[in-house]
Design a protein that fits this description.
By secondary structure, the chain is α/β, with parallel strands linked by helices. The protein is 33% helix and 27% strand. The strands form six sheets. A nine-stranded mixed beta sheet has the order 2-1-10-9-11-12-13-14-15, sandwiched between helices. α1 packs antiparallel against α2 and α2 crosses α3. The longest helix is centred in the N-terminal third of the chain and has 18 residues. The protein is globular, with a radius of gyration of 23 Å. The relative contact order is 0.09.
């Protein structure tokens, strides 16, 4: 079944319902969006054969969703790409997927046009007469595709090595959408979803279950995340849902707005660690309207979930421990933790998180070596470390490569970071290991102060001694103005490691 069938269905049963909005104003109904999508699909099939990739290198805009669904409607593969990447990085991805056609935002179209000469032949700037002319094509009947046909190439962030295209099938995306309702955002009604986070990643993936329910897809006029604008849009759209990285939730909490958030249905957060103190503050500010998910591009949005009802159980004796976890396995997957030999480890023991189920990717696009390394014995090896408690809640520790081994003991940076963030003078913290002749590795903490005043390292050390095992405490504290982050707010520890090498010099 073609994933685009859900939009075609909504175009019939919810033809007059708002489908696409820019800010507070509706642009298209579902009947209109379905019609435009079928026409755009017809134009694409005049250019491309079924099964060919189409790149979307665009900031969030109303055209994004009709292009995405037009690709699927035509039996093509959508390749949404982070629009904030450097042109060299974009060139690599376009070359790797061999896209002949690319849709681009105005700010990117000229640079991308200069990449033509390989497979790329056609760069279409959205909002131009060329784009509008495509919408005059004859509507294309919905393409018949097998469930395992590729639908979305999800390129990894490439923080280590070149990015790889996780190949997600129509069936992967459909089951992911079912998990949304079963495990993540369980309460109806679903009226509108706000896309303040990039549509090329989690927010775009969660557009799919909302199309199933004929919810309105709301694009901020800014095209991105602005706390004041978010609060305004919460006031404009009842039962509003949006996906946010933890850094975005923190920015909402720090914003001085005294806005009414009664319309807010759910803040879906994921993509990085949400510190417990921030979760508690968000529940106090918004009510029990948070839901957490943990996933990877290789199993999109679907490893574990911590739904709103668990966030709301403030009287549970282990409430804070549960908030510090990433929840329990979603209903379409099996999740276990394993040692270096893929043998399962016991409750409370730390191991690599392995996943199998109907949302796990087919493999990496034309990269059998990387596929064989990641998909072994029927399990996706995530590279993340974690432990299950006796109730089945999974707590993340760190990426396997981030674990610090000092004096023969494993130290998980997240544990140390959690302690540092409890100090009143610390706004942000990131912990890495550096080579140490005596201990093998030593713990180094990079901390961002709450104010412009510096932080006393001795005071931090005393605080850590009072709150964590001595062998886990940092040996070195470095005060920094800002932590290096990627476009999604994830701390780039590889950059910190490079900075640490400079200290050695």
């Amino acid at each position: 079944m073609n994933i685009a069938a859900h939009l075609a269905r909504a175009g019939r049963f919810a033809a007059e319902r708002p489908a696409l909005a820019l800010g507070a104003g509706t642009l298209l109904t579902y009947g209109e969006l379905a019609e435009r999508t079928a026409r755009l699909a017809g134009s694409l099939r005049q250019r491309l054969k079924p099964g060919e990739p189409v790149a979307l290198v665009m900031a969030n805009c109303p055209e994004y969703l009709e292009i995405l669904y037009a690709c699927w409607h035509a039996g093509l593969i959508a390749v949404p790409v982070n629009a904030k990447l450097h042109l060299n990085e974009l060139a690599y991805i376009l070359s790797d997927c061999e896209a002949r056609t690319c849709f681009a935002s105005a700010a990117l179209a000229t640079g991308l046009s200069g990449l033509r000469g390989g497979a790329l032949r056609d760069v279409i700037e959205v909002g131009t007469s060329k784009y509008e002319a495509m919408l005059a094509a004859e509507p294309l009947p919905l393409a018949d595709v097998p469930p395992e046909a590729p639908a979305w190439l999800f390129y990894t962030s490439g923080t280590t090595g070149q990015p790889k295209g996780a190949t997600l099938s129509h069936h992967n995306l459909r089951v992911m959408s079912w998990c949304y309702f079963a495990d993540v955002d369980q309460e109806s009604p679903w009226t509108a979803i706000l896309h303040a986070a990039p549509l090329s990643h989690g927010s775009g993936l969660y557009a799919l279950p909302h199309v199933m329910q004929a919810s309105c897809q709301v694009i901020p006029e800014s095209g991105g995340f602005d706390p004041a604008e978010i609060y305004e849009l919460i006031g404009a759209w009842p039962n509003l849902v949006f996906f946010a990285a933890p850094t975005m939730v923190k920015r909402l909490l720090d914003h001085p707005a005294d806005a009414d958030t009664a319309n807010l249905k759910t803040i879906l957060y994921g993509g990085g660690p949400m510190y417990t103190a921030d979760s508690v503050a968000a529940i106090e500010r918004f009510g029990p309207k948070l839901a957490q998910l943990y996933g990877q591009g290789e199993t999109p949005m679907t490893i574990t979930a911590l739904p709103a009802r668990v966030h709301a159980e403030t009287d549970h004796p282990r409430w804070l421990e549960r908030l510090a976890s990433v929840g329990v396995p979603q209903s379409a997957v099996e999740v276990r933790t394993a040692d270096a030999h893929s043998h399962s480890v016991g409750t409370g023991e730390v191991g690599e998180i392995l996943v199998r189920g109907q949302t796990v990717m087919r493999g990496y696009w034309r990269n059998p070596q990387a596929t064989a390394q990641t998909l072994r014995d029927g399990w996706l090896h995530t590279g993340d470390m974690g432990s299950f408690d006796e109730e089945g809640f999974l707590t993340l520790k760190d990426r396997a490569k981030d674990v610090i081994i000092s004096g023969g003991s494993n130290i998980y940076p997240r544990e140390v970071e959690d302690v540092l963030l409890k100090h009143a003078g610390v706004a942000e913290a990131a912990v890495i290991g550096r080579a140490d002749r005596e201990w093998g590795e030593a713990v180094v903490a990079y901390v961002v102060p709450q104010t412009r005043e510096s932080i006393d390292a001795a005071a931090l050390d005393s605080f850590c001694i009072d709150n964590i095992a001595r062998f886990k405490r940092p040996r070195i504290y470095r005060v920094i103005g800002d932590l290096p982050k990627n476009n999604y707010g994830k701390v780039l520890k590889r950059v910190l490691r490079e900075m640490e090498k400079e200290h050695d010099g």
